[in-house]
Amino acid sequence: MSSRRPLLLALSLLFGSSCLVATGGLGCGLWGSAGPSTVGQGKLYHSGEARFDELFSQLFELQRELAHPEEDHAALLQPVQRALELPTTASSEASYQALEARLQALHARGVRLERSPASAPTSDAVFTVHGAAPSEADAALLTALRAYGLGLQALEARRRRDELTLARLRRHVAELRPTVDSAFRASWRRRREVHDNLDDAEQLFPILEARSREALAALRAHLERVQRLLAPATPPVAAPPSSGAAERREAAAPATPARRTAPRSAPATRPASRPPAPPRPRPAPDFEP
């Protein structure tokens, strides 16, 4: 690996992953006169070898996917903002506050939202409407809100797939690197070029992984916020009566007279059994000689 490559990761830690853009300037000009590889510039590299080109193509798609993940969420939220009559430039927090106020007004008018249970085949973001019928404007808001919740879950699934793809591409780079010299033996210049692009790909993986984790955490936070807004209110549970109240109720109850029970007579005792009389002796027989 060239000695200029570790500078990418070091400077990305200093300046953040904002240097990562999908269309050029990935390294923010940090390579100087030597210049970054095609992968380092955030462009699609073609080596002419199918196995390598598949790797570089998938890596390029991930660079584009994770360049500005917040824009994907902003696009999902815009229909909800329009239904709330907010500008599409409003922050997520301002949108959630306006949405909460609108849902409370719906509840006051008898429109009740219930989130689907976890055991239902639909996602948690899907809800059902009960009670009074919503107005046309409110129905449009609920349609946009349902689409927003489902879109968040779909986007979260995409981010989880991105993490799996990054792990697989890491392994693929390790498998392909030993075969570079044999695959491009006809051109030393092409061998050097492929090695440089693989070097930059390895430096790019930690930054893309960090960006993917941040995007996934942000999406899960948005999902939790929506789920809290849709959670049905739990009716208060009546507290058990205190011991003092129970004692007062017992004191107020009329006393019941105690029943008199006749004393039980002692069981009659049987006389002790007498021992059997000894047998009488038989008289001696008469005998004359």
Explained architecture:
This protein has helices spanning 6-15, 50-65, 69-83, 92-108, 136-176, 180-183, 188-230, 243-252; strands spanning 111-115, 127-131. A two-stranded antiparallel sheet has the order 1-2. The longest helix is centred in the C-terminal third of the chain and has 43 residues, at 188-230. The protein has a domain at 49-234. With 289 residues, the protein is mostly helical. The protein is flat. Helix 3 runs antiparallel to helix 5 (136-176) and helix 5 runs antiparallel to helix 7 (188-230). It contains eight helices and two strands. The termini are far apart.
Order of helices and strands: HHHHEEHHHH
Residue ranges: pLDDT <50 for 5 or more in a row? 7-33, 233-238
Q: How many helical elements? A: 8
Determine the fraction of residues in helical runs and give it as a percent range: 40-55%
Measured distance between first and last alpha carbons: 149 Å
Mean pLDDT across residues = 77
Strand order of the largest sheet: 1-2
Fraction of residues in β-strands: under 5%
From the alpha-carbon coordinates, what is the Rg to the nearest angstrom?
A: 43 Å
Anisotropy-based shape: flat
How would you describe this structure in keywords?
289 residues; 54% helix; 2 strands; mainly alpha
